[in-house]
Amino acid sequence: MESVIDATGVAEYGLLINGRWRRAARCFERHNPARPAEVVGRSAAAAPEHVEDAYVAATAAAGGWAGLPATRRGEILNQAADLVLARESEMALALTLEVGKAIRDARAEVRRSAAILRYFAGECLQPLGAVYPSATPGTLLHSVREPLGVVCAITPWNFPLAIPAWKLAPALAFGNTVVWKPAEIASGSAALLAMALTDAGLPPGVLNLITGPAASIGDAVIGHPAAVAITFTGSNAVGRRIAVHAAERGAKLQLELGGKNPVVVLPDADLERAVECTVRGAMLSTGQRCTATSRAIVVGERHDEFVERLSAAVDGLVVGDPCDEATDVGPLASAAQHQTVRSYLEIARRERHRLARGGGATDPEDGYYVDPTVYLDVDPGSRIAGEEIFGPVLAVMRARDLDAALAIANASEYGLSASVFTRDLGAALTFARRMQAGVVHVNGETAGAEPQVPFGGMKASSSHSREQGKAALEFFTDVKTVYLEAA
Questions:
Q1: Under CATH, which number does the domain 3-257+462-483 receive?
Q2: d(CA 302, CA 266)
Q3: Mean pLDDT of the region 402-411
Q4: Which active-site residues does the annotation give?
Q5: Quick one: average pLDDT of 247-264?
């Protein structure tokens, strides 16, 4: 089975193991965040024995896939990209119904996923080693990169297609097989991406999709001895737990974790652009991006003008049904996330921050909506300023100069993304040099990443590894050095 449609029109997806879609004894329902009573799909709830079968299949397939010419692997990824684009409407709607992503953003994510697949198809044609001079005459000294083997990929719900694409595509391109565990609420979107890859010609066992609650299968997924590498995007708490498992087994580890991303607005900034990028970064995707703008640090005398423009821009956002083309901000993805963000609104009330816009939330039965919210004169030491909220909530602060702004920006435990708005080249370079973040933007929003460059954070935002671009080759392969001497 790929999917089964029941009498009510709800699709049920199985588990992909060794090239076959399999049922499980139990399934779980996925609900529409805009209308929580509405069931939008069902997915198989894997048991530990399914995880075992998936790793057995991935292990058996590893040699054949690694031995396939890289050009053929690239052809399959290119074909998968074609299928993703051909299925854009279906996949975008799945994102919207499962996690509440505004339909315009959902379509953009589908296209981005196809671009990632195509980029790594191109990487299949790039060099995989180097030749070095040797101190011994007649010795050919060279290195070659080889696949790791079986990779475990664990992906989040906020980008159910793009983040899996930037993990699966390089893992597959460089000859690895994969056991993939997506976030429970995004399991339907994951099944659609897996179908595109298998329909493109991926051999049985190369990609195995395991869905279900982490409480039931999480330890089996991350602790299996066949997984020589684990790549994870998600919360810091879960990331730390995975790091312990990986360290105990000596597995290679890649973590992409939280962020509390600042924008710094200098007195000479183009305020129209600064406000536009700040609002987009903070509020679109309902703030559910690891690179979302969480803090705005305004330097100098233009603070009030920035706040006035910011408030007007927030007022202009359309909050509503994510299937509506006019909607800018849809619901949060789940009841749990809705409760988390509401709890931070209460924390902000207790901390007595000045509310400029928003601050409200719907009853959960009416959808998981939270108003785009802006707090002013926020204490940099407060919880609102320091903790990741993962919702459409922005804390605005003041700073006397660039040095003070950098001190506030760098005080966070996180270091994923940051932006500065200025016309001063020297100030921009100073910010880029001194900002403790893995991604720095000048006159651009904190969110967003292109597939051809490294992506990842500093401090608590990552495992000090990088994803995408040429950095993906570093993680998904091992280096072998060869000394070849004439007999």
A1: 3.40.605.10
A2: 9
A3: 98
A4: 256, 290
A5: 96
